[in-house]
Amino acid sequence: MAGKVELRRAALRETLIAQAERRIKADGLRNLRARDLAKDAGCALGAIYNVFGDLNDLVLAVNAGTFKRLGAAVAEALADAPQDATEQLIVMSHAYHHFAAKNFNLWRALFDIERPAGEAAPDWYLQEMGQLFAYIDAPLSVIFPDHTPENRQLLTKALFSSVHGIVLLGLDEASAGVPAAHLDEMISLILKHLAAQS
User: Any idea of the CA torsion for 58, 22, 24, 181, to the nearest 10 degrees?
Assistant: First the structure.
């Protein structure tokens, strides 16, 4: 049975995650400050570092929740998708775009967090990313049945990177190259052309 100290620590951890998520959603990752979070959570500044090693660890905890919601959004979209493999890729990509647009700052935090050079991504991040890749791999294995698993893995990552890049540029107000209103159409065109090469 957990003692009072452990219970308080767990409660503070959840409060800090909730407050960090709220601030990232409203103001973006670059404006996240430990002093603001301590004030929001009603704790001393040092208490944050008794629960998390540093601010990046706290952001990673926020990102874990965001990744789970992203995966759930893609899975939900797939549940209603047609059986056609190309249409499944399109449905998934549109779900990714719509999640990113609706949760822009939280979505950006998934990829904008800084890690020391050479430091591997956490296991949960690799698992969540692996699940997204598995969703993509399934229809690709139908479209390209003659590809080796290794080639399909590369294609899966290339396809994700392409859709991610289109969405990133389209939702970035500073970029004028990708019109946001046509993102779904652009993604659909690319995926249909890809499938036509099979």
Answer: 140
